[in-house]
Amino acid sequence: MPHLSPLLTVMTNAARDAAKVLRRDFFEVEALQVRRKGAADFVTKADLAAEEAIVRSLQKARPKYGLVLEEQGEIEGSDNSNRFIVDPLDGTTNFLHGIPQFCVSIALERDREPFAGVVFAPITDEMFYAERGFGAFVNDRRLRVSGREDLSEALFGTGFPWKGKSGRGQSLKETDRVLAETAGVRRFGSAAYDLCMVGAGRLDGYWERGIQPWDVAAGIVIAREAGGEVTTIAEGKARPHLEGNVLATNHLLHDAARRLIEG
Ligand code: IPD
User: EC number(s) in its UniProt entry (predicted)?
Assistant: First the structure.
């Protein structure tokens, strides 16, 4: 891996600590699936254990920073400008079903802006990371967004509305419009990973409504540092992790994608 800053070293170490817990539990959950019982409870315990590992690691290295945690809520720090935003297991449904596409996601927010991000997919062993001004990487490779300018050739990612989310999720009509005008839509099941796919140029865009800060804060830094544009969908606001909806593109397609999604 290229030389990591002290901050990214802290964050990647914490992600690896959580990944040890998740990797061990993932192979057990596959066995639980086969026996068809107890998998949901088991995954909840895996989430919590992974989050504990991250909290221990981050608090030891940066004791003054606050933490926003998917499972345990907010822990305030004495430093008012820096807080970590943590999803110990983004892609919980995949994990629960034995699908290896899930991530640990850790962001550092500085003065309300996502400043550094780490997204680690432990089964495929892909460590995505970025810090503002220093570019984005996966393992030792630099990331660049795609150069596609034509919507009809573009591949988009999204998250569909699901039962726990009805009311604040997006309409399927929106997805239909995107399907009709582009090369296709993928649903990987992890918002953090979707944003990394935009950064890697594998997806040309990604949008989702009803998201939480911990789903997207780390991926936003990675997509932006790879040359992408990330805003809210309708108003194009610059802090989508605080607004509950997000659009990320390779930059070239941003306005056209906004118009298409909004209808
Ligand atoms: C979920 C995933 C999914 C997205 C949902 C998220 P979780 O996060 O990122 O792709 O569609 O909006 O809630 O629950 O697995 O941490």
Answer: 3.1.3.25
pLDDT digits (tens, 9 = 90+) for 122-149: 999 999 999 999 999 999 999 999 999 9
In a domain, 1, yes or no: no
- 123 domain residue, yes or no: yes
* Token digits of residue 159: 């998250």
137 lies in the same domain as 194: no
pLDDT at 167 over 50: no
Average pLDDT of span 209-215: 94
CATH value at residue 211: 3.40.190.80
What predicted TM-score, i.e. pTM, was given to this entire model? 0.95
Query: Which domain does 63 fall in, by range?
Result: 6-142
pLDDT digits (tens, 9 = 90+) for 185-203: 999 999 999 999 999 999 9
Q: Is 181 annotated as a binding residue?
A: no
Question: Cα(61) to centroid of ligand 1, in Å?
Answer: 28
CATH number for the domain spanning 102: value is: 3.30.540.10
For residue 177, being part of any structural domain is answered with yes
Which of ligand 1's atoms lies nearest the C-alpha of 102? 15
